[in-house]
Amino acid sequence: MLSDDLKTLLDQALGEIGTADTEALEALRVSLLGKSGSVTMLLKSLGGMDPEARKAAGAGINLLKTQITDAISARRATLDEAALTTRLAAERIDVTQPPRPEPLGAIHPISRTVEEIAAIFGAMGFAIKDGPDIENDWNNFSALNIPSHHPARAMMDTFYLTGGEVLRTHTSPVQVRTMLSEPPPIRIIVPGRTFRADHDATHSPMFHQCEGLVIEEGITLGHLKGCLSDFLSAFFGVPNLPVRLRTSYFPFTEPSMEVDIGWNKKTGEIGGGTDWLEIGGSGMVHPNVLANCGIDPRRYQGFAFGVGLERITMLKHGINDLRLFYESDVRWLRHYGFSPLSPATLHEGI
Ligand code: DAH
Description:
The protein is α+β, with helices and mostly antiparallel strands. It has 2 domains: 4-90, no CATH class; 109-336, Bira Bifunctional Protein, Domain 2 (BirA Bifunctional Protein, domain 2, 2-Layer Sandwich). It is built from 11 helices and 9 strands. It has helices at residues 4-19, 22-33, 38-45, 51-90, 109-123, 137-140, 173-181, 221-236, 287-292, 309-317, 330-336; strands at residues 127-128, 134-135, 166-167, 186-195, 206-216, 243-248, 253-263, 275-285, 301-308. The strands form 2 sheets. The protein has a 7-stranded mixed sheet, with helices on both faces. The protein has a two-stranded antiparallel sheet with strand order 2-3. Helix 2 packs antiparallel against helix 4 (51-90), helix 3 (38-45) runs antiparallel to helix 4 (51-90) and helix 5 crosses helix 10. It is elongated. The site of 3,4-dihydroxyphenylalanine has 11 residues, from strand 8 and strand 9.
């Protein structure tokens, strides 16, 4: 039971709480329940009373405190709820409004080629690997059977960095990284950026390659040819595209083969005519490379290949100047680019 004094105090407090806004409610809380608030002071005064009086007064003051505390919480909940309702109404979005037309971007032809290669080799069970642009000498050269004194180093105009590293001259170092990090069987492709100190209409200091590597027991040159023929046929959309392996030399393969496709030099038609066009290098992985990467060459064999992505992209789409790939000319990109809404898939051919 509350004394008359307390009852008056409670009625007044409840009246004010019931109509307070957020700020006023906080002020009320402080003036009633804060450190020197009126209810707090009443509670403190209990300390100076003798036990009998304290017992009588205590119950009433605590009841007062509980009722005020509850009233403040209830009012706060009401105010929060109202604020939320106002906000929801203000932030309402009309989902029936038609979208504003936005200019649609285009996928760069090199990116498209990477997507297509990934789709074709993905269907053959290949995984995609990646490596850093900055490589150490061992991964880029020595492990690939190109020792420092070897003239093959001069085949590539290398960008050397001050710490002894290089900008990778080919995607082949990712062969090394992969063989060192996982046991055979290995089936990977490595699309990526490569760098050489070369610059003219057909050479760019930064260009793209796609490496391929298969390491399994019993792999032969026949597998290499079949795999590349299937890939090139699918990529160029020419069934039974003529593919020729022509003996060559790479330090990291034995035997080594250039990969040529049939075409018509005059018309540019891929698969037609009687001319041959080189589009990449390949071969059976050299036993020294396998051994350098901790793989037993008496047990495992494999093939590898490297294809220039600008080259095959230019051929496929009739692009005749390599430099246009990197000029970031939006008009060119609109013409040669691909819709981001229809990614490369094998459903209807690439
Ligand atoms: N790495 C070579 C280059 O950049 C291309 C190449 C040739 C890669 C033969 C291979 C290969 O994996 O077997 O010129």
